[in-house]
Amino acid sequence: MSANVIGVDMGGTKILSAVIGPEGNILGTAKVPTKADRGPSVVIDRIADSIRKAIDKSGVAPTSIEAVGIGAPGPLDPATGVVIFAPNLRWKDVRLKDELEARVGFPTFVDNDVNVGTLGEHVFGAGQGFQNVVGIFVGTGIGGGIILQGELFHGASKTAGEIGHIIVKAGGPRCGCGTRGCLEAIASRTAMTKQFRKAIKKGQKSVLSELTGGDLTAIRSGVLAKAIRLNDKLTLKVIKKTTKYLGVGIGSIVNFLNPEMIVLGGGVVEALDDTFLDDIRAAAEKYALPNTLSGVQIVPAKLGDNAGILGAAALARQRIFND
Ligand SMILES: [Zn+2]
Predict the structure, then answer these.
(1) How far is ligand 1, taken at its centre, from the CA of residue 160, in Å?
(2) Tell me: the pLDDT tens digits for 176-227?
(3) Ligand 1 centroid from CA 166, angstroms
(4) Average pLDDT of every residue of the chain
């Protein structure tokens, strides 16, 4: 099989499209702003445009393109390619697959962006060669994806993998989903920011005040990395808590599913050094049953920002043969 596929990573602010060769080689890319405020139809026009641009840049013949894969924010139905609800884009019941197929003429396959990122790591990144892999991505929120026997697992309502909403502290902080004590409500960058803000408001000194110019509304991963290098007491304290609760979550996942590998990615993880992973593993040891962690590798994601396009390409390749 030597044909090429298109991988599309569709985010709230930008769309990244790429022509991907059979070995996962990136042959050409195009990035355009999403312009979500102009509505679904315009956004899908822009995806089609970015695909044409990526093909143009790659220099491959359009006839060599076999299919398009897209990672989209979601809950969505991977079978029909309908995005059920995407608050960032203000989308509701958008027929992304059909609409894009009508514009570009290639068979198109859609899945949730975090699932697609996990698939990318499984096929081309840290999870290569492993059949049962859980991906956990820590950023503004916490997303997850599950690969079982080499394939994405979706569950009855297509919502499997919502690792950010497993309860790690019953009655704990309120989560965006409406309940309390979710992993995301304690260990995401948003949750960490809240803890920083609260402590600083109470009078605790921190280099974060300087590094953010006093704007503590959104602490970026780069700022976090800097504060760690400066040994900032507050930052280290909040990270210790984050590590603990990621350990609680991972311990539970290991007890329940015992995957061969857990891939940890996302902006927060990328900002932290390797000792962070060791600390998470040590925390998970406390909550996993004896010997359940022994066969489980906990590793950092390898693909960074390319996980989306590479995973979308892997999705297109898998689905065109299986569907
Ligand atoms: Zn939640």
Answers:
(1) 14
(2) 999 999 999 999 999 999 999 999 999 999 999 999 998 888 788 889 999 9
(3) 7
(4) 95
Strand residues in the chain grouped as ranges (E): 4-10, 14-20, 26-33, 65-72, 76-77, 82-86, 91-95, 108-112, 133-138, 142-148, 151-152, 261-265, 297-300
Determine the distance separating the centroid of ligand 1 and the alpha carbon of 195, expressed in angstroms: 17
**Read out DSSP for 217-236?**
S---HHHHHHHHHTT-HHHH
33-49 tens-digit pLDDT = 999 999 999 999 999 99
Q: Is residue 300 within 8 Å of 278, Cβ to Cβ?
A: no
| 188 CA distance to ligand 1 middle (Å) | 11
Say whether 84 sits in a helix, a strand or coil. strand
Tens digits of residue pLDDT in 236-248: 999 999 999 999 9
Instruction: Answer yes or no: are the C-beta atoms of 60 and 25 closer than 8 Å.
Output: no
Domains of the chain in start order, with CATH, are 4-121+305-322 (3.30.420.40), 128-301 (3.30.420.40)
Read off the pTM: 0.94
Q: 201 is written with which tokens?
A: 């408001």
**pLDDT score for 2:** 65
Q: How close is the Cα of 178 to the center of ligand 1, in Å?
A: 6
* Distance from the alpha carbon of residue 232 to the mean position of ligand 1, in angstroms: 29
Going from the Cα of 22 to the center of ligand 1, the distance in angstroms, rounded, reads 38
What is the arithmetic mean of pLDDT over 265-269? 92
